[in-house]
Amino acid sequence: MRLLIVIVNYRTARLTVDCLGSLAPDIASLPAGTRVFVTDNASGDDSVEQLSRAVRENGWSEWATVMPLPRNGGFAWGNNEAIRPALLSEESPEYVLLLNPDTLVRPGAVSALLEFMDANPNVGIAGSRLEDPDGRAQRSAFRFPGVLSELETGVRLSVVSRVLDRFVVAPPPPDHACAVDWVAGASMIIRRAVFDRVGLLDERYFMYYEEVDFCLRAKRSGWPCWYVPASRVVHLVGQSSGVTDEKRPKKRRPAYWFESRRRYFLLHSGRFGTFLADSFWVLGHALYKATVVLRKQPANDPEQLLGDFVRYNFGLRR
């Protein structure tokens, strides 16, 4: 098989069915034998039944398979459970496309990624232009986080962002294909050779930062990442996790977000670099909070963000 598409579901059956429905019209134009695996991370609801019924009733059985898993091992684990056996099979895929369940694939989006990868054999990973349902582009071409990017992320002041422009993790999306540090795992195609070189996604990330880590490992192994805006995918942001949805009140960040962030920095920046990144974030956030108070504006933060950040990163957890 040339292409394997993996969607990880966790209590988002309705969204996943819509995602499959958006893929269905393009399946005939994709390489013969293209397969879609929907892994269910032990949702504990009727997700498997809903998904299996949708696949059966819509006639998608020739290309879509629902794969129930015994536990919720997170995003990386849920993807790897489908990728690992596929890579070991006799019909190992040339490419693997990761799709979020809260995505809707625009016509031709998958073909655009395949065409780009075929035309650029030295590229290891490519990501789609993610957009709102009205077509407005989301920030989906990223730079690797570092010490100064954490200061910019914490402070959120336009004057600081201008000074630290080249360290901003999520700059405005370009309108042309270009090399980037990393792309969102919501729609990310990976060449088989990348897995051969760097291994699978790191399952010690439960959710968040796993695609950043994977793209960094790939880049260090000689496989660059590109952003391909010709591939357009609607991303209903935060519908899967509820963490990054800007249209709803921000709920408290889950422990796994802090744990994933900390793992990434410790692995790639070391203890001292992580301490600097944490300290710069706290400094930036303190400046942001002071500005909010002076301007008498509401703080646009998840609940208990600063306290949770300090507890998880400076060893003050109970």
Structure description:
With 318 residues, this protein is α/β, with parallel strands linked by helices. It has two domains: 3-138 and 173-235, Spore Coat Polysaccharide Biosynthesis Protein SpsA, Chain A (Alpha-Beta Complex); 255-313, no CATH class. The protein is 41% helix and 18% strand. The protein has ten helices and eleven strands. The chain has helices spanning 13-23, 47-57, 75-88, 109-119, 147-155, 158-163, 192-198, 210-220, 255-295, 305-313, and strands at 3-9, 35-40, 64-68, 95-99, 103-105, 125-131, 141-142, 178-180, 182-183, 187-191, 225-235. Helix 5 (147-155) crosses helix 9 and helix 9 (255-295) crosses helix 10 (305-313). The longest helix is centred in the C-terminal third of the chain and has 41 residues, at 255-295.
Secondary-structure topology with pairs:
Layout: E1 3-9, H1 13-23, E2 35-40, H2 47-57, E3 64-68, H3 75-88, E4 95-99, E5 103-105, H4 109-119, E6 125-131, E7 141-142, H5 147-155, H6 158-163, E8 178-180, E9 182-183, E10 187-191, H7 192-198, H8 210-220, E11 225-235, H9 255-295, H10 305-313
Parallel strand pairs: 1-2, 1-4, 2-3, 6-11
Antiparallel strand pairs: 4-10, 5-11, 6-10, 7-9, 8-11
Overall tally of domains = 2
Number of strands: 11
What amount of the residues lies in strands?
15-25%
The structural class is alpha/beta
pLDDT under 50 segments (min length 5)? none
CATH topology of the largest domain: Spore Coat Polysaccharide Biosynthesis Protein SpsA, Chain A
Helix/strand order: EHEHEHEEHEEHHEEEHHEHH
Form type = globular
* Gap between N and C termini: 50 Å
Summed over residues and divided by their number, the pLDDT gives a mean of: 93
| CATH class category of the largest domain | Alpha Beta
